Amino acid sequence: MGEASPSSWSSTATAAAAAYDYERDPRWAEYRASLAVPPHLASHPVVRAHFQHKFYRRFVDPDFSVQGMSSTTTSQPSESSSGASTSASENARPPDSGTNSAVHARSRMSLQLDQRSLHFSVNAWVLIVALIGILPMAPQSLQYKGYRLSLIGTTCTTGYALFAFYRLPRAGNMQAVQAWYHHVTSSKDFIPFMYCLMFVTSKLRLKLVLVPVICWALEHVARFLRRHFSNSSLYRTYLEQLCTWVEMNTTAVNFLCSNAEILLGFLLILSLFSKQRNAMQTFMYWQLLKLMYHSPFTAGYHRAIWLKIGRTINPYIHRYTPFLHDPINAGMRWWFR
User: Fold this and answer.
1) Is 28:272 a contact under the CB 8 Å cutoff?
2) Cα–Cα separations (whole angstroms), residue 301 to 43, 257, 260, 306
3) What is the CA radius of gyration of the chain?
4) Distance of alpha carbon 66 from alpha carbon 18, whole angstroms
5) What's the CA gap between 51 and 28, in Å, rounded?
6) Which letter does DSSP use for residue 238 in this model?
7) What is this structure's pTM?
8) Residue 174 CB-half CA count within 13 A
9) Whole-angstrom Cα distance, residue 58 to residue 17?
10) DSSP for residue 325
11) So what's the pLDDT on residue 82?
């Protein structure tokens, strides 16, 4: 959990992209049909994986990095077939299609950059108010406002991201709604959205709730600053070391976030014995923890932590409280279901 290279985060994101169910996503068929790829290349595994990664970055995880294809992949077909496909595409293409596509690509990139800039601004604001809400130096009233505003800000940003990517179900039948629900719940922004929505409506206020919010905002802000402000003298003077540290220790930040999420689940169980108990919220949060355990974006961190917890407490359970075996086994069957 100390220092970790960016390759660990990249391998986790690549595994999540490979595990995504593209065939069950109706947008994949439309996206694949819109690609101008010759038939002899469309079935190539490397080409197919490349366009799946581009689809994953566009519709699922905008921060996912897509690497270019090797030149040997596109040069495997014979010269005759490549020449025929080139001549056919040139004959079928309007004279000004290149200019139109370039203008469309520039306008689309500008719009996407504006959306990312707005997302960055809100995340920077969330990071500031969350730090105000968690640090003990601020007055109690200011801490409470920072606590609420940080949760509201994260709820709004993640909710907007979900709506922008998935909209609403195109059809009103149960099959379309189930497919839409499956894609939404398996996305990267669903867990932060449900997490913040759950606590922003709760009367229970725990500062530990803000630790994952700060981790999410810090990771996003650091990544955006490194990509778009690397030439700024202000960034190089005051923020470069911090952003570089966050990028180099993404795994440690994610483990901190996961530890806080799991510890919060046990604190909610303890809160059932206080005046601020909320059994429904506790049950819903443990459902969310179960989703974190199975989600490809958080499964690696949560499973490692739960494995460590099991190795620590299992000997004491076997020795001192063997009557807990049956309840724990029943809970594990529900957990892995």
Assistant:
1) no
2) 35, 9, 12, 9
3) 24
4) 12
5) 10
6) I
7) 0.68
8) 0
9) 12
10) H
11) 44
pLDDT in tens, 167-217: 888 777 888 888 888 888 888 899 999 999 999 988 888 999 999 999 999
Token readout for 75 is 């040069």
Q: Distance (Å, rounded) from C-alpha 229 to C-alpha 94?
A: 39
Say if residues 292 and 281 touch (Cβ distance below 8 Å).
Answer: no
3-class secondary structure, 87: helix
Q: How many CB atoms lie within 10 A of CB 246?
A: 20
DSSP states of 242-273: HHHHHHHTHHHHHHHHHHHHHHHHHHHHHHTT
Alpha helix (H) residue ranges in the chain = 6-19, 26-33, 39-42, 45-59, 71-74, 79-92, 97-134, 140-166, 174-185, 190-200, 210-228, 233-234, 240-248, 250-271, 279-294, 299-320, 325-336
pLDDT at 2: 47
Q: Tokens 């979900």 identify what position?
A: 162
State how far the Cα of 105 lies from the Cα of 45, in Å rounded to an integer: 27
Burial class (CB in 10 A: 0-12, 13-18, 19+), 233: exposed
pLDDT category at 281 given cuts 50, 70, 90 is very high
**Spatial contact of 185 and 210, defined as CB atoms under 8 Å apart:** no
